[in-house]
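hi! just following up on the protien thing from before. the input was this:
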Amino acid sequence: MLSDRDYMGWQGRRSGFPHQQASVIKPLIIINLIVFVLTGFGDTHSRMQALITLHPLYIRQLEVWRVGTYMFAHAGFFHVLMNMWGLFIFGSIVEARIGPRRLLNLYLVSGLVGGLCWLVANWFGDTSVLLAQAPGPEEMRTLKSLGAEFFRESGGGVIMQAAPSVILGQHIRFLFPFPGVVGASGAVFGVMMAAAMVAPHQKLMLIFPPIPITIRTLVIVYGVSEVFTEFRNAAGASSAIAHVAHLGGLVAAFFYVRQLTGRGPGDELRRAGDHLQSWWSKRRAKWRQEHFRVVGGEKSEVPPYNAETAREADRVLDKLAEHGEKSLTAEEKAILERTSEALRNRARKK
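and the predicted 3d structure came back as:
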């Protein structure tokens, strides 16, 4: 059981008494709230928010730090409230079982993978940017000839939609691209997935409707909802929520917790390889029994069945399996015949 493993209990010992590491949940919440205040309470137009928002256009400019900073910014009070509430509820359950350090790793890995998944899903296609200043008539004609489109924002600004290569290639000055992504949702969804794996049957009370539900059921419902919504978005529906980042966080947490339990993807691949090798050995042994036989003619001295004989036979059998019986030479067929007779002799002696 997961709860029986060493890392599910005390995290260290000092002077013979158990010593538990400090929780990381409160520091994570404080950091998110501080960033929320510094960004003007999630103001999209603030310089701080623009500095840490994640968007493919920024990454194309090699501003790679945004993959790690976006998860500490939020777009509004309700956004940060729900994420921090989810971190507190599910993080407390996970931290009690895997420890603070692993919870922090889980949080960061889920957020990073969620951001990368969102980047991949939004890497191609046109980008909208709020221009720093309206282009002149000549510049606008040039940009339109390159496929750019222009719109007026309600505040009087000019929005340009074009391929990233056009925006960067023409050195367009813009205030920010959109829609970018901010928020700890991918990381929190990862914590939710971990809670469903370490405490699947623990029940929570929903606010609306006020009914009890197990964590596993809740995460399954959320996961299915995210997949369905993402398919709707791919079909043309619009959404301001980065559902693919949520899915990335769920998947990252699944593999992270599986690795903690010793059932990571590497172990499963090794087990699959062992099963395949065992199946091939059995098939080869069965083929050997069915097809090896002594043919008529003058009998020659049969060598004993040993390691060298087995290696020769295996080489011929591999060639037979790959190229067919017609590819065997007379000498190779003789090797199979001698090996068959050696096996028969050994069976008679037993």
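The chain is about 60% helix and 10% strand.
The longest strand covers residues 127-131.
cheers
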